[in-house]
Write a structure and sequence with these properties.
Layout (H helix, E strand, L loop, with lengths): L10 E3 L2 E4 L9 E4 L2 E7 L4 E7 L3 E6 L2 E5 L3 H13 L7 E6 L4 H6 L7 E6 L2 H10 L1 H4 L7 E5 L2 H6 L5 E7 L13 H10 E10 L4 H5 L7 H12 L2 E8 L7 E8 L15 H6 L7 H6 L5 H7 L4
Parallel strand pairs: 8-9, 8-11, 9-10, 11-12
Antiparallel strand pairs: 1-2, 2-3, 4-5, 5-6, 6-7, 12-14, 13-14
Helix pairs in contact: 6-8
């Protein structure tokens, strides 16, 4: 492969991978490729895995950073433990997307969970992750995990009323996963929940970029509007992920239980429990802080519930 020639959605030039698209208006991120481990186009998207001196192994889908070995704990621990520790007794969990296995790894740390389903449309992401990203793909080894290679929308339609928590670990809203940011998908998630169920979706962007009006349509506020029409309780949380644009990731959460208070975990972890779970980022104190936003963001998002 000629590394100087950009792939359909991925720009690799002079030993660097450049995350640059019309979606990120006016800015880009660049990471040095110390070793190109994998680069192929699957049936659905362009997949790149590199080694970088600072961030370790890194996964890109259609040119957009998905995770790095250095900071993936911040993303995966937040998207899992924020919702699961807000639920009184999560037994059945569905992950839509998440082909790298990191969400599975964190869900499996909860002893109350009896079954974990992963619905991933691109089997190649799973295959590549198992080979190059063992620190996240270890999640597939848990015996409670059942993998379904299919469209998440279709899977939800066939599994109504089955899950306590549904986590959408999707790629960016501008590409393959765009349907996972729309109201019909969230309606299907609601119907697939058991009474008192919770959803958590990565919201793609951060309030700094949305404040400047650089994304169309604004993803966080759009997801909040969708969830507020379907659920009695919604909330937004953030996690510090240095390799993501602006260094933050936002999550939109919602519950069918009107008494849910996301900002305070129902079950607080002791220091010993956090150590036993090998948590690098999340703890109960950080849980509360994840829902604290700057003044401009609070005005933009409106009421949390």
């Amino acid at each position: 492969m000629d590394e100087s020639v950009p792939a359909p959605s991925t720009l690799i030039k002079d030993g660097w991978i450049i995350e640059c698209s019309d979606y990120h208006v006016g800015c880009s991120q660049t990471f040095r490729i110390d070793e190109l481990l994998y680069h192929e186009k699957s049936e659905f998207q362009d997949i790149v895995v590199i080694k970088n001196e600072l961030f370790g192994t890194m996964l890109f889908l259609d040119g957009a950073i998905q995770l790095s070995e250095r900071d993936e704990c911040a993303y995966h621990e937040s998207i899992v433990h924020l919702p699961l520790l807000s639920h009184p007794n999560p037994k059945s969990v569905l992950v839509v997307g998440g082909g790298d296995g990191g969400v599975l790894r964190e869900v499996a740390k909860h002893s109350t969970v009896e079954e974990i389903h992963l619905c991933e449309i691109d089997e190649k992401v799973i295959e590549v992750s198992k080979k190059y990203l063992p620190m996240t793909a270890v999640g597939f080894s848990d015996p409670r995990v059942k993998v379904h290679i299919q469209d998440g929308n279709v899977f939800l339609e066939d599994n109504k009323g089955k899950f306590d928590v549904i986590i959408t670990d999707s790629s960016d809203s501008s590409g393959l996963a765009s349907v996972l940011f729309e109201k019909p998908y969230h309606q299907k998630m609601k119907e697939a929940l058991k009474p008192g169920g919770i959803i958590c979706s990565q919201a793609d962007e951060v309030s700094w970029t949305e404040q400047q009006g650089r994304f169309s349509p604004p993803c966080i506020t759009k997801l909040l509007e969708v969830c507020r029409t379907l659920f009695p309780v919604t909330a937004t949380a953030t996690s510090n992920v240095p390799t993501f644009p602006c260094g933050l990731c936002t999550f939109v959460m919602a519950s069918t239980n009107k008494d849910t208070v996301f900002e305070r975990p129902l079950r607080k972890l002791t220091e010993r429990e956090a150590e036993d779970m090998n948590l690098q980022y999340y703890d109960s104190e950080l849980h509360a802080g994840a829902f604290v936003h700057p003044r401009f963001a609070r005005k933009m998002f409106g009421a949390q519930s």
